[in-house]
Write a structure and sequence with these properties.
Helix content: 25-40%
CATH class of one domain: Alpha Beta
Radius of gyration: 19 Å
CATH architecture of one domain: 3-Layer(aba) Sandwich
CATH topology of one domain: Rossmann fold
Length: 317
């Protein structure tokens, strides 16, 4: 008789990665509950129990966790630039509610927390490229500091209370259901602006190098982390190589057959020149590698955007 699959709650289940993860879990036979402030694509969460709420509302969070074995923590209320502008709010809206989440997890018998951290910010100006999980963590933005603080609290809760966890340091995910809210997701922003014949702001000279990974590969890693029995706790999740912003622009223009309208802006202090992670640990322990070639993922993302974006109605924040 096959073992029963764990029941899961996905915090941030109505967002980009959360929607993709919930769809996969539901299709694979998991009992899935999604928690968030809104669902941009409610029809895509068929078979998923929806709990609407704010991550800072302790009672709503506790109710969402009830009877769940695995908690996927994908929520982060601020983006890097906004976090630098109000660091206290970044802590108040992300780190403090996470402590409440973890406390309830350990009291309610949750078996594992899987946290989506940031492979692009926790290392700061990394000296080793590709950057392994053992490299120093010296964030140069508040967003990276709050992500790293949550990682440390997860380790502390395991030490003090035995709450098991996995951390995935995800680089730059892209793919269907990403619609560039709050200026997040350069590929989504470029595609959306191209479809609307609108200009897009580019910070810096386009030479910054980032590690892009297709969202379905990210979901593969999240699902693997939920049931992994190895001894490692922290994993880099990336595409396996770096691409400059100019490379991304060229690839999008080639696939869409049009020239993007770019508005060049000064570079930002929070943007490191190169961010590429080593993914050997995930391959060895989780059995995970990115399976989607970048060009294939980009093609699927553009196809989805052409079909879907004209019909999307974005609700108020």
């Amino acid at each position: 008789m096959a073992a029963q699959k764990p029941s899961c709650v996905v915090f941030g289940g109505g967002g980009f990665i959360g929607t993709n993860l919930c769809r996969r879990l539901a299709a694979s036979g998991y009992r899935v509950r999604a928690f968030g402030r809104r669902r941009l694509f409610p029809a895509e969460l068929d078979g998923v129990e929806w709990c609407q709420g704010n991550f800072t509302d302790t009672a709503s969070v506790e109710a969402a966790i009830e009877s769940c074995d695995v908690v996927f923590h994908l929520v982060h209320a601020t983006m890097p630039q906004a976090a630098d502008l109000d660091m206290a709010a970044d802590v108040q809206n992300n780190v403090i509610p996470t402590l409440a989440l973890l406390d309830h997890c350990r009291r309610s018998g949750v078996k594992r927390v899987v946290f989506a951290s940031s492979g692009g910010t926790v290392y700061g100006r990394a000296q080793q490229i590709p950057t392994p999980e053992t490299a120093p963590t010296d964030p140069i933005c508040a967003y990276g500091i709050s992500k790293l603080a949550i990682e440390k609290y997860l380790a502390l809760f395991q030490h003090l209370h035995g709450l098991d966890f996995r951390v995935l340091r995800i680089t730059n995910p892209f793919g269907p259901f990403q619609i560039a809210l709050k200026n997040q997701g350069v590929i989504a922003a470029l595609i959306a602006r191209a479809l609307r014949d609108q200009p897009v702001e580019i910070w810096g000279d386009g030479t910054v190098v980032r590690d892009f990974v297709f969202v379905e590969d990210v979901v593969d890693a999240l699902v693997a982390a939920a049931t992994d029995q190895g001894s490692e706790r922290v994993f880099n999740i990336g595409g396996g190589r770096g691409r400059s912003l100019r490379d991304i622009i060229t690839a999008i223009e080639r696939q869409m057959g049009k020239t993007l309208r770019l508005e060049w802006k000064p570079g930002r202090p929070l943007d490191v020149p190169v961010s590429v992670v080593a993914i050997d640990r995930a391959a060895q322990t989780l059995g995970w590698v990115p399976n989607t070639p970048f060009e294939t993922g980009l093609e699927r993302t553009i196809e989805w955007a052409k079909k879907t974006l004209p019909t999307v109605k974005i609700p108020p924040q």
